[in-house]
Amino acid sequence: MKIVGLITEYNPFHNGHLYHMKEAVRTAGADAVVAVMSGDFVQRGAPALLPKHLRARMALEAGVSAVIELPVWCACGSAEYFSSGAVSLLDRLGCVDTVCFGSECGDASLLEEAARVTALEPAPYRSLLREGLRRGLSFPRARQLALSSFLGKEAGCILEEPNNILGAEYIKAILQQGSSLAFCTIQRRESGYHDQELADRYSSATSLRRLLRESGSAGALDRLDGQMPASSLRVLRGAYETRYPVWSDDLSLLLKYRLLQETKESLAGYADVTRELANRIVKSRNDLLSFDQFCGLLKTKEMTHSRISRALLHILLGITARDMERFKQEGCGYARLLGFRRDASALLGIMKKSSSIPLVTKLPRPGAKSGTGEGEETWTGLARDMLQADILAADLYESVVTEKFHRPFISEYRQQVVII
């Protein structure tokens, strides 16, 4: 069986995602599709629009064979950690042949060229990068200018676009991890990642979320007809104002509570929090009115809104710089199955046999065994800590849903694998 892997957020699942999935199957000649998907928090440093199990259902009903959760340490990390975690999972499943990702350029060779430079960091490139950072440029801008000078404008400028950046990071992770995964890319259609307005057919997830937020009513869902598969729209209609929408500002009081317990020294220990940012947070925390407003208050020329948002989310979820260093050394130690299609049951058997890490279908209680049968070992170390962080993040998200929509709380231990 030939299997293609996708790295996704599906926030929410739309026509562009369906196109990507179908083209990935065609390009890779695949028999099955495994999607690694962010859980309840996403890479831009925000809660997902709707819970991960609903987003997994959307993907499965659209034709994805199985959905694996990307651990929260990676899901809300920088592009480097997001990519490294996803590639680590797909590689350790032991059965995925090809990673297929979307990009603005649609040119895998250009992305590979950029990936090799950023992975190897030859001395001239490293000097150019350091010069840009000394001039006060943000890291993404300094990197893009350094690549443009080192490789030429065409190759360097591809890292101006968000999906190109992720694509280069996926290839970089494959190279650095010594993975045998092949890779290919599908060019985005119609809309860009950050486009705010709906396109004719292939609108960005950003524009869909914007429509829902600005409308504030179920009537906005009528405008999504034709923008996403009918099955995805049914999920949105059925769960509206009972399980979603969840926005960053719904985390505001939780964030304020957490920040009031921190000092400049303790804040500097969290992932993506520099000492300078820690000082600004302590100085400004009494002016926090909402999550997004606070991000805007802390934003500088050197630090993007997304970087600030990720840093605040790391504080809220208790993810430290030390945690991320541990992950960098060891990679993902388990693969949690969120859902699968019944007609892909053979795929599950293949994954269980080929995977070098446990395939988790039911969350283990503290002190439980981690093995997949022979040679079981107790959940300890990095895998235990990452899984506990996933459970905390999910329960925190569920607490927001419970309070906002007055629904009974569903513990992460009671969540069932989605089967279509």
Keywords:
420 residues; Rossmann fold; 19 helices; 10 strands; 50% helix; globular
Describe this structure in words.
The chain has 420 residues and is α/β, with parallel strands linked by helices. Among the domains are: 181 residues, 3-Layer(aba) Sandwich (Rossmann fold), CATH 3.40.50; 80 residues, no CATH class. 50% of the residues lie in helices and 10% in strands. Strands 1, 2, 5, 6, 7, 8, 9 and 10 form an 8-stranded mixed beta sheet that branches. Helix 5 packs across helix 9, helix 6 packs antiparallel against helix 7 and helix 15 crosses helix 16. The longest helix is centred in the last third of the chain and has 25 residues. The two termini are 20 Å apart.
**Structural class, judged by helices and strands?**
alpha/beta
Number of strands: 10
Tell me roughly what share of residues is in helical segments: 40-55%
pLDDT averaged over residues: 92
Strand content: 5-15%
Q: How many angstroms separate the termini? A: 20 Å
CATH superfamily of the domain at 3-104 and 161-239: HUPs
Radius of gyration: 21 Å
Bulk shape: globular
- The CATH architecture term of the domain at 3-104 and 161-239 is 3-Layer(aba) Sandwich
Secondary structure layout plus pairing:
Layout: E1 3-8, H1 15-28, E2 32-38, E3 41-42, E4 46-47, H2 52-62, E5 66-70, H3 72-75, H4 79-92, E6 98-103, H5 108-120, H6 123-134, H7 139-151, H8 153-157, H9 162-176, E7 182-187, H10 205-215, H11 230-239, H12 252-260, H13 264-267, H14 275-284, H15 291-298, H16 305-317, H17 321-330, E8 335-340, H18 345-354, E9 359-360, H19 381-405, E10 418-419
Parallel strand pairs: 1-2, 1-6, 2-5, 6-7, 8-9, 8-10
Antiparallel strand pairs: 3-4, 5-8
Helix pairs in contact: 4-9, 5-9, 6-7, 12-16, 15-16
